[in-house]
Amino acid sequence: MQTLRRKMPPFFYLWCLLLAPCLLLLEEAHAARYGGASLRSQHMALLRWKATLASPPPQMSSWLENTSPCNWTGVMCSAIRRGRRMPRVVTNLSLPNASITGNLGELNFSALPFLTYIDLSNNSLHGAIPASIGSLSSLSHLDLGFNNLKGQIPSEVGCLHQDMRSGPIPGEIGKLVNLQFLQLTNNALSGLIPKSLGNLTQLNTLRLYGNLLSGPMPLELGQLIHLQDLELGSNHISGPIPISITNLTEMRRLSLTRNQITGPIPPEVGNLAKLNHLDLSKNQITGPIPPEVGNLAKLNHLDLSKNQITGPIPPEVGNLARLNHLDLSKNQITGPIPPEVGNLARLNHLDLSKNHITGPILPELGNLARLNHLDLSKNQITGSIPLELGNLTMLNALYLHENQISGPIPGSLGNVTKLVELYLHQNQITGSIPQEIGNLVNLKHLMLDQNIISGSITEFQPALFLA
Ligand SMILES: *[C@@H]1O[C@H](CO)[C@@H](O)[C@H](O)[C@H]1NC(C)=O
Ligand SMILES: *[C@@H]1O[C@H](CO)[C@@H](O)[C@H](O)[C@H]1NC(C)=O
Ligand SMILES: *[C@@H]1O[C@H](CO)[C@@H](O)[C@H](O)[C@H]1NC(C)=O
Ligand SMILES: *[C@@H]1O[C@H](CO)[C@@H](O)[C@H](O)[C@H]1NC(C)=O
Ligand SMILES: *[C@@H]1O[C@H](CO)[C@@H](O)[C@H](O)[C@H]1NC(C)=O
Ligand SMILES: *[C@@H]1O[C@H](CO)[C@@H](O)[C@H](O)[C@H]1NC(C)=O
Ligand SMILES: *[C@@H]1O[C@H](CO)[C@@H](O)[C@H](O)[C@H]1NC(C)=O
Ligand SMILES: *[C@@H]1O[C@H](CO)[C@@H](O)[C@H](O)[C@H]1NC(C)=O
Ligand SMILES: *[C@@H]1O[C@H](CO)[C@@H](O)[C@H](O)[C@H]1NC(C)=O
């Protein structure tokens, strides 16, 4: 009604107050002007979409001509203020996992301008994301993940719409200014990530993983100051990590895995003080691990594996007291394992395999009491296996193969009774197999070949598997 006040001459409004039926007229005029404010037109838009579906799922059997859409499965209405009236309008459309097979473009979003919440994830929707979705200026949650959508993400999603007739909020017409959650994961969307997404400054979650998106990450993502969750993995994104995203200090989860990202990890990543999940794995990232990573005190998952990272493991990694998953495997990391890694008391997964790590396995690794997976294989590690590894009683996989480890197998390993896989092959291990290995009742795979080991293991476990 605010808008009407602005558009209608004041005498018209006064005149209307005297004539009650005129209010209806006003409502009609409003509905016409703002493309379907009436519940009737929202009702029709939903029914028309149902009619285009090959075989509407059982969830949609309540979607009928003679019932209110506010009563339908997956549809919710709310009363909105329109002057002195409080008409009910369709605000939520939520039918995830419903096996809806149809074209999303057949749903006329222009006729549903009051939607605040859309969850049509995990259906079989095909076609493109219609640009008209960008006119839903009340929308706060859009989930179209796990469908078969194709084409580009329309730039209208973040742009001021030209069509002044769409969208109910004047001044912000046709912009998803209220969008907080945008999930378009696991579709077949292609093209660039539109720069205009940087206008969606209320976003706290942006998940686009599992598509065919290409080109660089737009710098404009650095404007999304409320972003807590940015997941762009499994696309064809190239170019460097824009430094602008290191400004997003609310970020909790950043995943860029499985792309073609190049260039270094910006040291400014250390500004993301609230980060608890950082996954940059399976890209073409070069340069060293910046010591600033050690500032990420809340991190519990750090995966930089399968890149072209060089240089040493910075001792500052030992500051990440909450870390439970550390994977730096399949890079070109050099130098020794810093003793500070032994401070990571919550670690349960440590993978440093397939690098050029030198020096010994430090006794400090025996402090990692929660470790269940330790992989140091395929490096240039020397020295002997420390007795302290026998303290890792939660361990079920120990891979030390393809190094230059010498000395005997310590009997203390017999304390690691949860061990299922013990790979020590292709080293220079000497001596005989200690009796205590016979305590490893859960062991299924023991690989000892290409060492200088004497004796036989047949006397231990019939279940043992020798390669
Ligand atoms: C979509 O809805 C708008 C507003 O109700 C209407 O003007 C337009 O004609 C509709 N489009 C189609 C294709 O039905
Ligand atoms: C909603 O459905 C119930 C029964 O399922 C019915 O009693 C009620 O009248 C319906 N309300 C509207 C507004 O259609
Ligand atoms: C999708 O829905 C099906 C049931 O319709 C369910 O089995 C499957 O786990 C769901 N997948 C996701 C990713 O939600
Ligand atoms: C959709 O399916 C997934 C996986 O089975 C499940 O986690 C989720 O809760 C389901 N969503 C709804 C609304 O049923
Ligand atoms: C309806 O949408 C609002 C956000 O606009 C959301 O908070 C609420 O959970 C949704 N309700 C349902 C049942 O999906
Ligand atoms: C939105 O983003 C685009 C591209 O970054 C920009 O051109 C436009 O001015 C921005 N602002 C609005 C209000 O659309
Ligand atoms: C980070 O934010 C500050 C303040 O908002 C701004 O001045 C600066 O240009 C931003 N840096 C980048 C790299 O976007
Ligand atoms: C770890 O192992 C060593 C040698 O096996 C032992 O001397 C030490 O007491 C153990 N430490 C803890 C904390 O269990
Ligand atoms: C661990 O193994 C060593 C050597 O086999 C043994 O002396 C020690 O008692 C064991 N410790 C525990 C806690 O089982």
UniProtKB/TrEMBL annotation:
Keyword Repeat in annotation: yes
Cited InterPro entries: At_inactive_RLKs, Leu-rich_rpt, Leu-rich_rpt_typical-subtyp, LRR_dom_sf, LRR_N_plant-typ, LRR_R13L4/SHOC2-like
Lineage, highest ranks first: Eukaryota, Viridiplantae, Streptophyta, Embryophyta, Tracheophyta
Superkingdom classification of source: Eukaryota
Keywords assigned: Cell membrane, Leucine-rich repeat, Membrane, Repeat, Signal, Transmembrane, Transmembrane helix
Residues annotated as signal peptide: 1-31
The species this protein was found in: Triticum turgidum subsp. durum (Durum wheat)
Domain called Leucine-rich repeat-containing N-terminal plant-type: residue spans: 44-78
SMART domains: LRR_SD22, LRR_TYP
Stored SUPFAM superfamilies: L domain-like
Entry GO CC: plasma membrane
Residues in Disease resistance R13L4/SHOC-2-like LRR domain copies: 268-376
Protein localization: Cell membrane
One Pfam family linked to the record: LRR_1
Name recorded for this polypeptide: Leucine-rich repeat-containing N-terminal plant-type domain-containing protein
Chief location bin: membrane
